[in-house]
Amino acid sequence: MYDRDNSPKVRQSIMQEMLQRENNSEIEALFDQIEKVKADIEYWKSRDDSTATDAEVAERHLKPLELELKSLEEKRNEKRGDDPKGEKPTCETAPVVPAGASGGVTPGKRTNYLTPAIETAQGKCEEKDKLNAPAVYAKLRDMASARLTPFIGVTEDGLQWLDSNDHPQTLSLGNLRDRLNRQKTNSAKTR
Q1: What angle separates helix 114-124 from helix 133-145, to the nearest 10 degrees?
Q2: Contact, 136 vs 180, CB < 8 A?
Q3: pTM above 0.85, yes or no
Q4: Coil, strand or helix at 111
Q5: What HEC string does 135-175 produce?
Q6: How far apart are CA 50 and CA 36, in angstroms?
């Protein structure tokens, strides 16, 4: 009899959750270190530097602390997947729609959490490759590796993402090829 709890997908999901928890612990530790270094910097900046010697001592302590702070913040941002400006990655923001305007959703047309990610990946491709499944998949794999919404990682089966019910789903190259073929067919019909 086959034990569902021992299936490769379940084991893989458990391993991913363990890695995510470990990563979150590392991020929390970095936040703690950053706060400690910031407190040390504040201490040295608030000292009374009335003499030249005091100012030199404070300066000698401040420089390494500021470098350490910068290094810790870079590590934290790398662990969290932040961009170089220090902003948390998010889905691209939707354009502002004036009050009373249509939301742009065609009645009867379903969308899911993966559609905006695919459109973003297509936008990163050259014009000739926007419907080329391997090219778009490569961009999506980069997004999944960085764990950008809605992706949670990359597996040997494909790119894992969370659906609207927070259930893990997998997007394979074949699935993406089917989606892009439907997109080609639908765009040809509307012309």
Answers
A1: 110
A2: yes
A3: no
A4: coil
A5: HHHHHHHHHHHCCCCCEEEECCCCEEEECCCCCEEEECHHH
A6: 26
Give the count of beta carbons closer than 10 Å to the beta carbon of residue 44: 17
For CA atoms 145, 155, 168, 126, give the dihedral sign: positive
pLDDT in tens, 128-177: 888 999 999 999 999 988 888 888 889 998 999 888 788 888 999 999 99
Spell out the SS3 assignment of 31-95: HHHHHHHHHHHHHHHHCCCCCHHHHHHHHHHHHHHHHHHHHHHHHHHHHHCCCCCCCCCCCCCCC
Count CA atoms closer than 13 A to 36's CA, side-chain side.
8
Q: Per DSSP, what are the bridge partners of residue 160?
A: 153, 170
**Whole-angstrom distance, CA of residue 174 vs CA of residue 185:** 16
Which tokens hold the place of 189?
């019909």
C-alpha distance across the termini of the chain, in Å: 54
pLDDT in tens, 84-99: 554 544 444 445 545 4
Q: 150 burial class (0-12, 13-18, 19+ CB within 10 angstroms)?
A: buried
